[in-house]
Amino acid sequence: MIKPNRRDREVHMSPVGLFAYGSASEREGVDLGEVPFVVVDVETTGLSSTSDRIVEIALVRIEGGRVVDEWATLVDPGRDPDPTFVHHITAEMLSGAPTFADVAGEILSRLDGAVVVAHNARFEEGFIAQEFARVGISTAPLPAVCTLRLARQVLAAPNFQLVSCCTVYGIELHDAHTALGDTRATAQLLPRHQRWCELFAAHGSTVGVSVNGPGALNRNRLDHAGRSTIQRTLRGIRILAETGLEYSVICVVTPETIDHADDLIGFFTDLPECQSVGFNIEEHTQ
To answer: Is there a contact between 210 and 221 (Cβ–Cβ < 8 Å)?
Structure first.
């Protein structure tokens, strides 16, 4: 589901403003099965959207959960295509390629009426917006979703690069760092981020969340790398609440938290959609 998020629009809107970001939700949102979305990826001469240029762009259109169209082109940046060791695009390959001005209309027509999806969408947004500006094109903000932001909300991974997210979900990433290869992989990420919540809702599953309290009161809950889980747990709770899924919480009361009853009760009372809290008193031996 894609739901425009007012807070994101006010606080997280990028300076160029080409994309208007949404979040994963079922409440007052738009079912992805009802609208098309277009996954976009660019390869560039560098990392600065103001001084570097696009050398390749790809768009994959999804309707009803199916790929219905793929389009990709090299783009003549009017300069050296560095870094070739990343995108494998040489100056010889760009000889005779269209400029961005040549394909700008085609890109706009393919984005029209769709939700734009990208992994680390700020990167694509910055470069595409600058390229549009260079050729004098302005457009209303395009509805967009960033799968990198979604991955940070729902995945426990060593990092949230596209290759790592694909590994977690068992998605084969072919032709990494080519625009079309990356768009094909990203197209598979978005529905998988939502699948667990949809599965819970479809089967009326009861969800249980283990959390011992806010901040330092949860410090005993660590992942396999020894990192605190509290922020990821709270993001997961927020996603459950946004999709209208009720859940219960189990809290292990430890010697460190047993004197913080008011803090614990206040924390659990404020959790959205939480139906019940169970307290398990940890046995402590000297």
So the answer is: yes
pLDDT digit string (tens) for 68-113?
898 999 999 999 998 888 888 999 999 999 999 999 999 999 988 8
Task: Give Cβ neighbours of residue 120 (< 8 Å, ≥ 6 apart).
Answer: 146, 148, 162
pLDDT of 45 reads 93
Average pLDDT of the residues of the chain? 78
Q: How far does Cα 283 stand from its chain's mean position?
A: 41
Q: Which residues of 249-275 are buried (b: 16+ CB within 10 A; e: fewer)?
A: bebbbbeebeebeeebeebbeebeebe
Nearest to 215 by CA among 246, 245, 256, 250: 256
Domain layout of the chain by residue ranges: 2-201, 207-281
Question: In which residue are the tokens 């249980």 written?
Answer: 208
Is the pLDDT assigned to residue 5 strictly greater than 70? no
Give the model confidence (pLDDT) of 9-33 as tens digits.
222 333 448 888 765 544 444 455 5
Q: Measuring CA to CA, how many Å separate 117 from each of 149, 203, 211, 232, 272?
A: 11, 28, 32, 23, 28
CB 120, CB 150: distance < 8 Å = no
Residues 6+ apart with CB under 8 A from 10: none
The answer to whether the CB of 180 falls within 8 A of the CB of 72 is: yes
**Fold of domain 2-201:** Nucleotidyltransferase; domain 5 (3.30.420)
Contact 195, 32 (CB under 8 A): no
